[in-house]
């Protein structure tokens, strides 16, 4: 593996971590919103 | 409020794109390590951002212990969670950089690497405590854990000043000679990551406030049902 592969791996890993966290937040937000609507009814 | 959020999101996206261009294309290539050194522009700003977030967690925890202000508790939780995300980036990108440069993924026993891993584990434990514990004293216990956890931050930062380590010397303020163009790109990336941290914290704060409202409403609902 040449050094460019390590460079790309590090940058991709960074964005995968941030993307995964954002996905967790979006999922939690959807669940809270659903629960809010259920409680309003 | 919503307009401010949209502006921050746009500014963050623009700054991150510009920072990526600067890191991958505009920054000069380091003579010894070559292009792999560009990992530096993500690794170091992520570490500094995590330190800032853990500092916010530390201050908010003290404020919560003194005033019992729920807003301080929310800020402590959010800053720890977003801080762990940035610290995870540091823990992952470090070994990816170390492998081609040192020939190993991890230097066992190295003080900087070990204290960083311990810092990450402390805040993971803090988040597990907050998630698993349901008692009314949880925020108080968590605040105490956070104050002790924050003691590891200066240990991580200053470890390379006082101990022999495989990790390079500090690039700024530690006698290191960083090319001014590299320092410029480093600071742009740090600004971009700080904006990202602010944006993520904003979203997470709103989510936490909504979650607490839902929990209160659910508790009221179950009280009403049990009294029928």
Please give the largest β-sheet of chain B: none
Number of helices of chain B: 7
Distinct helical segment count of chain A: 1
How big is the Rg of chain B?
A: 20 Å
Low-pLDDT residue spans of chain A: none
Give the % helix of chain B.
over 70%
Report the span from N to C terminus of chain B.
Answer: 41 Å
Number of strands of chain A: 0
- Gross morphology of chain B is globular
Largest sheet of chain A: none
**What series of H and E elements makes up the topology of chain A?**
H
The helicity of chain A comes to: over 70%
Mean pLDDT of chain A: 92
Query: What characteristic shape of chain A results from the CA principal axes?
Result: rod-shaped
The biggest chain-chain interface is: A-B, 22 and 32 residues
Give the SSE order of chain B as H and E letters. Answer: HHHHHHH
């Amino acid at each position: 593996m040449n050094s460019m592969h390590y460079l790309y791996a590090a940058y991709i890993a960074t964005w995968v971590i941030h993307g995964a966290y954002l996905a967790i937040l979006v999922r939690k937000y959807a669940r809270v919103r659903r629960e809010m609507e259920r409680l309003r009814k | 409020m919503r307009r401010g959020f949209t502006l921050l999101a746009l500014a963050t996206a623009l700054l991150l794109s510009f920072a990526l261009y600067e890191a991958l294309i505009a920054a000069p290539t380091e003579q010894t390590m070559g292009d792999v050194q560009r990992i530096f522009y993500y690794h170091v700003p992520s570490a500094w951002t995590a330190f800032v977030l853990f500092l916010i967690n530390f201050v908010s925890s003290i404020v919560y212990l003194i005033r019992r202000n729920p807003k301080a508790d929310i800020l402590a939780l959010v800053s720890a969670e977003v801080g762990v995300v940035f610290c995870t980036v540091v823990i992952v990108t470090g070994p990816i950089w170390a492998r081609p440069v040192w020939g190993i993924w991890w230097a066992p026993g190295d003080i900087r690497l070990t204290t960083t891993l311990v810092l990450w584990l402390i805040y993971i434990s803090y988040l597990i405590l907050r998630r698993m514990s349901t008692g009314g004293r949880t925020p108080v216990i968590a605040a105490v854990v956070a104050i002790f956890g924050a003691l590891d931050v200066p240990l991580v930062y200053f470890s390379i000043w006082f101990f022999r380590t495989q990790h390079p010397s500090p690039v700024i303020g530690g006698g290191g000679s960083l090319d001014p163009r590299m320092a410029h790109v480093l600071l742009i990336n740090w600004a971009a990551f700080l904006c990202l941290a602010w944006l993520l914290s904003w979203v997470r704060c709103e989510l936490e406030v909504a979650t607490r409202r839902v929990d209160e409403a659910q508790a009221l609902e179950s009280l009403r049902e049990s009294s029928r």
